[in-house]
Amino acid sequence: MKHIPVLLDAVKDAIGDMRGLRIADCTFGAGGYSRAFLDAGAHVVAFDRDPHVANDANMFQNKYGNTFRFVPETFSHIGEIDGLFDVIVFDLGISSMQIDVGERGFSFRADAPLDMRMSGKGMTAAELIAKSSVDELATILRDYGDVKKANIIARAAKEKLPQTTFELRDLVFNPNDVAPVFQALRIAVNDEFGEIQRALAAVPNKLACGGRCICVTFHSLEDRIVKNTFRDWTTPPGDARLPETCPAPFKLLKTVTPDDGELENNPRARSAHMRGVIKTC
Ligand SMILES: C[S@@+](CC[C@H](N)C(=O)[O-])C[C@H]1O[C@@H](n2cnc3c(N)ncnc32)[C@H](O)[C@@H]1O
Fold first, then answer.
1. Is residue 219 lining ligand 1, measured as CB closer than 6 Å?
2. Is residue 154 a contact partner of residue 138, using CB atoms and an 8 Å limit?
3. 269 in contact with ligand 1, CB cutoff 6 A
4. What's the CATH fold of domain 8-97+193-279?
5. 195 Cβ below 6 A of ligand 1
6. According to the model, what pLDDT value does residue 258 have?
7. Which numbered atom of ligand 1 lies nearest the CA of 27?
8. Taking the chain, what is the end-to-end CA distance rounded to the nearest angstrom?
9. pLDDT lower than 70: segments of the chain
10. What is the mean pLDDT of the chain?
């Protein structure tokens, strides 16, 4: 299934007139956001660490020429891009294509090698299980998936060393824990929270005055990271919570969640939140 962009109208509303703006689309995916920005007259630098998006990115390059640049890297490299951005956007998590291509190992609904790497580089989920201790694995399940009985599942995983998605699914005895277990391993394999934290630390210095940072999150744990970071940035100057990496105070934009119409059209939007801030210098 082609990826349906989530909360795109809310993101466009939060940006306003895009003509001539320099926008970083940190999560290119199927290019739904980038296309909307480019068609509205913005210049876009798009990141994605997934090599499977290269074809779409090439098509964008041909269509939009030098108003579009693709960076096949993790978005935590944003600090290394020259110049400032008017808008930096993150549409976090995984795309429909990543879930739907069973062989990539993200889904417990398709039998496939237990991989889960967005970039195809680094340790697979099967290797992560093999390398971690029971305690380390239980911590991953608890911290990244809120998994109940994390210790028991970690012990079972270390004993059986699952190599496929179905082998992992079948050792999780409570069906309600299967999705959280897959989510937790995916977050660990891709260092998703580390990526968000490193990228957000670079954002204040990469935004022009009046620039906006907008994040769409898909579960409470990543939403909490964004919410707390934005809260720190919006503390008054002089307050100890204002991080050193934040040279100017920010103002919060309104948080938006999908309306019934969007949810009906795209059930994958159900847990989404859009949060944003404006740099007020
Ligand atoms: C939810 S999709 C984005 C969909 C996109 N907004 C659209 O409308 O088509 C998330 C994308 O971000 C990418 N991604 C996730 N974490 C990343 C990271 N740390 N660095 C670069 N790309 C990342 C994934 O590979 C995936 O393609």
1. no
2. yes
3. no
4. Rossmann fold (3.40.50)
5. yes
6. 97
7. 12
8. 42
9. 1
10. 95
Q: Is 217 in the pocket of ligand 1 (CB under 6 A)?
A: no
**Residues whose CB falls within 8 Å of the CB of residue 61, separated by 6 or more in sequence, listed in order:** 68, 70
CATH of 120-189, one of 1.10.340.30, 1.10.10.10, 1.10.150.170, 2.40.128.20: 1.10.150.170
Q: Is 20 exposed, middle or buried (0-12, 13-18, 19+ CB in 10 A)?
A: exposed
pLDDT per position as a tens digit, 245-263: 777 789 999 999 999 999 9
Question: 91: which strand partners?
Answer: 216
Contacts of 17 (CB under 8 A, 6+ apart): none
CA 14–ligand 1 middle distance (angstroms):
20
Convert the pLDDT of each residue in 94-137 to its tens digit.
998 898 888 899 999 999 999 999 999 999 999 999 999 999 99
The amino acid occupying position 2 is K
Shortest-distance atom of ligand 1 to CA 25: 6
User: What residue ranges do the domains of the chain occupy?
Assistant: 8-97+193-279, 120-189
Ligand 1 in reach of 29 Cβ (< 6 A): yes
**Looking at residue 245, what is its pLDDT?**
76
Residue 117 neighbours by CB under 8 Å, 6+ apart: 104, 123, 124, 189, 190
C-alpha span between 253 and 33 (Å, rounded): 19
pTM reported for the whole predicted model: 0.96
Alpha helices in 65-191 (DSSP H): 96-100, 125-131, 134-145, 150-160, 165-171, 178-189
Going by their DSSP bridges, the two strands 85-91 and 207-217 should be labelled as parallel
* Residue environment code for 238-264, b if the CB has 16+ CB neighbours within 10 A, otherwise e: eeeebeeebeebbeebeebebeeebee
